[in-house]
Amino acid sequence: MRSALVSLVMLAGIGLPATVQGRDVMVWGAGQVSCGAWLETRKVPEPPGDHRLEGRRQWLLGYLTAYEEYARGGGDILNGSDADGAFAWVDNWCSQHPLEPIFRAGFALVSELSKHR
Fold first, then answer.
1. CA-CA distances (angstroms) from residue 86 to 6, 13, 47?
2. Does domain 30-115 have CATH number 1.10.890?
3. What share of residues in the chain are helix, strand, coil (percent, to 5)?
């Protein structure tokens, strides 16, 4: 348990360089985790004291919130859907891209939802 906590703390402080639409960005926190890991934690209920899934879900919701605030200046990117709908969409995307990091799933979700605005 202690080594997992230390690893989590260390991972949260290390950014993952990425390129999104031709721009270099730094991805922090749970957005670096693979879609395969996202799907594994979604399969079973979280054991007490294990907050990996909740952290990943909160990262995704923060990503959507930041998009609303900084890219759109407000609104509702989910357009009447909810967090569970976003999680289900990411589950589907991740099942097709298990080696990609979660931030790519978040970017794909934002891109898809932006088409329908």
1. 29, 26, 23
2. yes
3. 60, 10, 25
Q: CA-CA distance, 105 to 102, in Å (whole number)?
A: 5
Task: Report the 10 Å Cβ neighbour count for 35.
Answer: 21
Q: Which residues pair with 34 in a beta bridge?
A: 101
Tell me which amino acid residue 88 is: A
Two structure tokens written together for 13 = 């402080």
HSE (side-chain half, CA atoms, 13 Å) at 95: 7
pLDDT digits (tens, 9 = 90+) for 75-103: 788 888 899 999 999 999 999 999 999 99
Output the CA torsion sign for 22, 74, 107, 41: positive
* Mean pLDDT confidence for 99-115: 92
Return the SS3 of 70: helix
